[in-house]
Each structure stands twice: as C-alpha cells, then as structure tokens.
C-alpha cells in the first residue's frame, strides 16, 4: 500500500537539504542526469516501447501516442536540456532588493525555493525530466504523478534521476514518483498540504478542474491551449502561409500548436486557397464556417463544416478551424470568446493594429508576425519548463526557474527592538 504521508515527509526533509545545496552541487546532479540519459538510452527506450505498445493496443490516438513516445533523438534533446539548465544562473539566493531603514535595520528580500511541488501530468514522459531538472536547480523537492500510459517510462526515468542524485550526495527523495496509477492517489496528493506547497497539473481540462475543486494546496493551472492566428488585411500573405504551416504542422500534438485560423475578409479569397494547398501537403483537415467554406470549396479544397463546439477545441492533431472575420474587432471578439489565454498571434504590417491586438488580447503569450509555437521555456531562454501557466497570480506563461521560487524578507539588526 502506498503511503503518501511518508512520501510527503521524505520530500519535506529533502527540500530542506536542497535549500542549502550549493549551485555547484546542484549542477553536478543535473550533468549526471544528462550523462545517464545518454548512457542508459537502450534501457529507457525498451521500457518506453512497452508503454507505447500497450497504448496502441488500448486504442490511444495518434496525438497521445506521439506524446508518449521516447526516441533516441528525444532522449538526446532531454540530456541537452538538462545541461542547458545547469548552465543557467541559479536564482536561489538572489537579493532582489536591500535597503537600510531609518532605524538602521538592514532589510533585504531574497529569492528562495518554494519547497515541495506536486506535479500531476498525463502521457508525456519527457515532463519527468523537465520538471526534475528545474526543481533541482531551484532547490525544490517534487512528487510526480504521471499518467497510467507512461508508468514504466516514468518509473525508469525517476530511477535514473534518483541514482544520479545519490552519486552527487543529494537526497534521492528530492524526486519521487507515485508508483501507482490509482486515481484515488491524486485526490490524496491534492490534500497533502502539510508537506506540499504547490500543485501543478499538466493535462486536459478535466484534470485542471479536479485540481481546482479538490486541492487544499495552491494550484497553478494552464497548458490547455486553444491558440489563434489572425491574418490581417495588411499581412504579408506569402510569409503568413509559412507561419500558419509552422504553427499547425511543426508539432500538432502540443499545447502551443495552432487551433483556429482567423482571416480578414479582404484577403480571404487570396489567402485561404494558398494556405489550404500548403496544409494539404501535411494532411491537415480543415473545418470552416460558411464564409470560409464557400471560398475553399470554390477553389476545389475539401473542407468540413464547423460543428457547434469546434472553435472551443484544442485539437492536438492535424485539424484546423477556419473563419473569415470582418476585421480586427471581430477577430479579438472571437479570441476573447474562445481562447484559453495561452498563445495568440496577429500577422500584420499595420503597427497600430498590432499594438491593439497586443493590448486587448489577454493571453499569457501574444505574438506579432510569429508562430505560436514559441511559447516554450526553452525557446524563451528559460531552460525547460514545468508547465505553461494561463492564470495571472504568481507566474504566467512558461514556468521556468524564477517561477519556481518565492522570496523571504530578512532583517539584519544590532539589538533592534520595536518602540
């Protein structure tokens, strides 16, 4: 029987040790993890292959199987990410401000770890490494709960991490995984507030709702992306085709991939057939509202009509919703109605419209003339990320190193007493 209280107690003790670990020791552990990922690739791939085979037998979608899959290249990328995190500045101990009060008390504000994180995620074993490396760098212990689809992969990766921690003198319990897919354990974790300081869910809307409703621990939600690109009348249409293709096709199974394309009516007749022809090369299915559908069918493009909920879908697949809009106001209205506040972009050569879009679209990441695929901790120069937050308190966007810290006030006195 799994005792989450014992896991929580061990994590709390490990967090105290990590909080005083030097940057050099933490970096040594990260490099040991990177080396182990390369040295033990065959074993990791064999464990992952069993998960993928089971997922395929259970009828998992192509998008979920892609998220589940580890390859030699993906493991090499994870090792490179771990080394990159080791190269990043350590935020722990940074002095954010310091001032001498009139009574000569020296007051400083210092960045410190959050403590113990609980991270709940689904079919993405790479999250195990991403989360562990960022938590270790910032001096946080972490309790992981991955999806049942990735249990073998996650157990193997956690064992690898714990072995690396042991070799560098850090507590193996700094990174623990709940080795059971029983959903009841998620509810128990959400109430482990004596030991866990923050919950970060990475998964679908159901998981986020569960965490918000049941957790007695603060929750950072995000990572569900219904992402939009608006092609303005002034856009460079040739370049816009490239951007839309990248946003939709480069990796369709991730949260920053494009879900809905909005096109100004003045350029729709020219742009939609061109972008449809490009996307057809990758097998993208288009679902269009009537105005867009009429243009596409007239150009000989196969297109399905949009269903009542299609503009509220995070597709995670080669499917794209398409809509013709009358202008910037309708585009922004549509985004505000259907967006999950993740990543949205405007393609335009009109600076005033670009600034209106930036000011009025209330998403964690807003782009001008760029793909939504850049919303990523690595792309932002943050190293790997724990999640992408779409809420507004504490942290927003890719949660990198600084987002995994808080601060404390420190007063240096000389026998000071308050009058």
Q: What is the helix tally?
A: 14
Instruction: Point out poorly predicted stretches.
Output: none
Distance between the termini: 56 Å
Strand runs, count: 16
What's the story with the biggest beta sheet?
A: 7 strands, parallel
Strand content: 15-25%
Mean pLDDT: 95
User: Portion of residues in helices?
Assistant: 40-55%
Computed Rg: 24 Å
Helices and strands, in order, run as: HHHHHEEEHEHEHEHEHEHEHEEHEHEEEE
Molecular shape:
globular
**Overall SS class:** alpha/beta
Q: Largest beta sheet: what is the strand line-up?
A: 10-9-11-8-7-12-13
Question: What keywords describe this structure?
Answer:
419 residues; alpha/beta; four-stranded parallel β-sheet
Describe the structure.
- The chain is of the alpha/beta class and 419 residues long.
- Helices cover 42% and strands 19% of the residues.
- The chain has helices at 4-19, 23-39, 41-57, 62-68, 72-87, 126-137, 151-167, 184-189, 205-214, 237-249, 268-280, 290-298, 328-338, 351-360; strands at residues 95-100, 106-113, 116-121, 141-145, 175-177, 198-202, 227-231, 258-264, 285-288, 304-305, 319-325, 343-347, 365-368, 388-389, 397-398, 405-412.
- The strands form four sheets. A seven-stranded parallel beta sheet has the order 10-9-11-8-7-12-13, with helices on both faces. A four-stranded parallel beta sheet has the order 5-4-3-6, with helices on both faces.
- Helix 2 runs antiparallel to helix 5 (72-87), helix 2 packs across helix 7 and helix 10 (237-249) packs across helix 11.
- It is globular.
- It starts with a helix and ends in a 7-residue tail after the last strand.
């Amino acid at each position: 029987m799994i005792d989450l209280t014992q896991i929580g107690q061990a994590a709390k003790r490990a967090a105290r040790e990590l909080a005083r670990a030097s940057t050099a020791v933490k970096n040594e552990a990260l490099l040991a993890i990177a080396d182990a990922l390369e040295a033990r690739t065959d074993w990791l791939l064999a464990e992952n292959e069993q998960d993928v085979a089971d997922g395929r037998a259970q009828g998992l979608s192509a998008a979920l199987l892609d998220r589940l899959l580890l390859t030699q290249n993906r493991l090499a990328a994870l090792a490179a990410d771990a080394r990159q995190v080791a190269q990043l500045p350590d935020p722990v101990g940074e002095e954010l401000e310091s001032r001498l009060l009139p009574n000569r008390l020296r007051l400083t504000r210092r960045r410190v770890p959050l403590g113990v994180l609980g991270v709940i995620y689904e079919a993405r074993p790479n999250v195990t490494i991403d989360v562990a490396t960022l938590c270790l760098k910032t001096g946080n212990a972490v309790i992981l709960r991955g999806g049942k689809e990735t249990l073998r992969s996650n157990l193997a990766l956690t064992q690898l991490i714990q072995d690396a921690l042991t070799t560098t003198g850090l507590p193996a319990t700094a990174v623990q995984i709940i080795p059971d897919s029983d959903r009841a354990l998620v509810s128990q974790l959400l109430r482990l507030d004596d030991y866990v300081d923050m919950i970060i869910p990475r998964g679908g809307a159901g998981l986020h709702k569960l965490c918000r409703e049941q957790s007695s621990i603060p929750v950072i939600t995000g990572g569900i992306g219904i992402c939009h690109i608006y092609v303005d009348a002034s856009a460079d249409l040739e370049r816009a085709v490239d951007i839309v293709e990248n946003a939709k096709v480069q990796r369709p199974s991730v949260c920053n991939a494009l879900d809905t394309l909005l096109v100004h009516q003045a350029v729709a007749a020219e742009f939609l057939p061109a972008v449809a022809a490009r996307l057809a090369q990758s097998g993208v299915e288009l679902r269009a509202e009537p105005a867009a559908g009429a243009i596409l069918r007239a150009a000989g493009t196969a297109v399905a009509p949009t269903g009542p909920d299609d503009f509220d879908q995070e597709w995670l697949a080669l499917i794209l919703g398409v809509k013709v809009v009358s202008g910037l106001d309708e585009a922004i209205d549509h985004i505000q109605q259907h967006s999950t506040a993740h990543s949205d972009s405007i393609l335009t050569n009109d600076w005033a419209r670009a600034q209106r879009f930036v000011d009025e679209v209330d998403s964690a990441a807003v782009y001008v003339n760029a793909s939504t695929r850049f919303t990523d901790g690595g792309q932002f120069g943050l190293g790997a990320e724990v999640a992408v937050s779409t809420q507004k308190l504490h942290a927003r966007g890719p949660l990198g190193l600084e987002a995994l810290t808080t601060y404390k006030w420190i007063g240096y006195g000389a026998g000071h007493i308050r009058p």
